[in-house]
Amino acid sequence: MTPIFVAIFLLGLSSQMATAANFTLVYEWPDKWECECPSEANSTKVLSIESSNPGYIDPQFMAVYGSRIFIILEKHVGIPVSLVSLPTSSASPAPPKLTPFPSWDMHGNDGDCDKIESSRGLEVDSVGKLWVLDNGSSKCNYSKIWSIDLANNDQTKLIHRFPFYGHLNDLVLDETPNGTFAYITRWFEQNIVVFSLERNQSWTVDTPGIMFFSIAISPMNQEPRQLYLGGWNSKGLYSISVAALRNGTLTANPKLIGNWTTSKSYRMLMDKHGTLFSAFWYKNYVKSWNTSQPFLERRFIKVGRHQYKMSFSLNI
Ligand SMILES: *[C@@H]1O[C@H](CO)[C@@H](O)[C@H](O)[C@H]1NC(C)=O
Ligand SMILES: *[C@@H]1O[C@H](CO)[C@@H](O)[C@H](O)[C@H]1NC(C)=O
Ligand SMILES: *[C@@H]1O[C@H](CO)[C@@H](O)[C@H](O)[C@H]1NC(C)=O
Ligand SMILES: *[C@@H]1O[C@H](CO)[C@@H](O)[C@H](O)[C@H]1NC(C)=O
Ligand SMILES: *[C@@H]1O[C@H](CO)[C@@H](O)[C@H](O)[C@H]1NC(C)=O
Ligand SMILES: *[C@@H]1O[C@H](CO)[C@@H](O)[C@H](O)[C@H]1NC(C)=O
Ligand SMILES: *[C@@H]1O[C@H](CO)[C@@H](O)[C@H](O)[C@H]1NC(C)=O
Ligand SMILES: *[C@@H]1O[C@H](CO)[C@@H](O)[C@H](O)[C@H]1NC(C)=O
Ligand SMILES: CC(=O)N[C@H]1CO[C@H](CO)[C@@H](O)[C@@H]1O
């Protein structure tokens, strides 16, 4: 059995940071993660998280708000919840246990349509609401979006049910004076999904011939905002102007910016200065590109050991 190495780093960012950065290792879990789950009622489930092959503990997405980190775990056999939280710091040297978020009771198995079945992308908005995509399950036949009010006792609402199910990957938020939109990638689909919060409506925007996986959006103060998309089946990096998406277009023509030299993009982020960061499948480093300049990849950071997948998040 290969021990899994999972670590969380905090990085101090400054406006000059794109080339040099120092990391602080916050926690390291050399072999297993433990769940702060109720021990009595459903203890068999709880035990299984500790006794399952630790290789199956598979962190996927991350967000930070205040003194809490939120992590989405792939729901492999024996993993009872897909969304957990932990503190950004701890007085104890031991890595903290993972707490089901927002609560153990909000998590369900496939077919618990009013509970969190299988969370995917997550994003914190400007008023402290955590948006969580939920892939759903074939038993309910729809995917959904949750909103958890981090500044307000973690009040949890199911805000949308999609007319489709599955293949959800990641989302970004676009908060405009005319309303809030979410743009969502679905792997294996030649489209992206747009959700309008005010209208409680979602629709698919076709991207003929191109499938996307990773997604990022340019800073709020730089209109017209651009959506950046990494190919699902290619190394291509594409952009789409969000003006047309807000306007309800049903077909977009993504512009190819360039090809990453490394591998397919796994996760992308953009900071408020317009620097785009990408992690890659099977690579232990992140590359960056200053989007104010022609496409040029720079090696940004490298994390010690081999990584199958790497999640990262900005605290802004
Ligand atoms: C990183 O740490 C080194 C040594 O502590 C320090 O000299 C350097 O200025 C730091 N760099 C940044 C970007 O903070
Ligand atoms: C699930 O939804 C799809 C698309 O709306 C539909 O074609 C399919 O029959 C549904 N399946 C079930 C089991 O309800
Ligand atoms: C939004 O629409 C979905 C159906 O797509 C519905 O289930 C949900 O209750 C609606 N939410 C609100 C807040 O109206
Ligand atoms: C999401 O749904 C698809 C089926 O459409 C499934 O293949 C995939 O494994 C699911 N992913 C998660 C994380 O539940
Ligand atoms: C908001 O809507 C108005 C009128 O439809 C439009 O002129 C304006 O450009 C929109 N603003 C944004 C940020 O989309
Ligand atoms: C949005 O739609 C309106 C009305 O259909 C149109 O006048 C406007 O040019 C469109 N804007 C963009 C950016 O596509
Ligand atoms: C990117 O790669 C594709 C093939 O995968 C190629 O057709 C295209 O010309 C490349 N584009 C650039 C800008 O390098
Ligand atoms: C990005 O490029 C622009 C234009 O060349 C420059 O003004 C800016 O300082 C660069 N940003 C960073 C973080 O290096
Ligand atoms: C969260 C969860 O799985 N709760 C279950 C605990 O066990 C009881 C009895 O088997 C179930 O009814 C709950 O749904």
UniProtKB/TrEMBL annotation:
<dbReference type="InterPro" id="IPR011042">
    <property type="entry name" value="6-blade_b-propeller_TolB-like"/>
</dbReference>
<dbReference type="GO" id="GO:0005576">
    <property type="term" value="C:extracellular region"/>
</dbReference>
<protein>
    <recommendedName>
        <fullName>Bee-milk protein</fullName>
    </recommendedName>
</protein>
<keyword id="KW-0964">Secreted</keyword>
<comment type="similarity">
    <text>Belongs to the major royal jelly protein family.</text>
</comment>
<dbReference type="InterPro" id="IPR017996">
    <property type="entry name" value="MRJP/yellow-related"/>
</dbReference>
<dbReference type="Pfam" id="PF03022">
    <property type="entry name" value="MRJP"/>
</dbReference>
<feature type="signal peptide">
    <location>
        <begin position="1"/>
        <end position="20"/>
    </location>
</feature>
<keyword id="KW-0732">Signal</keyword>
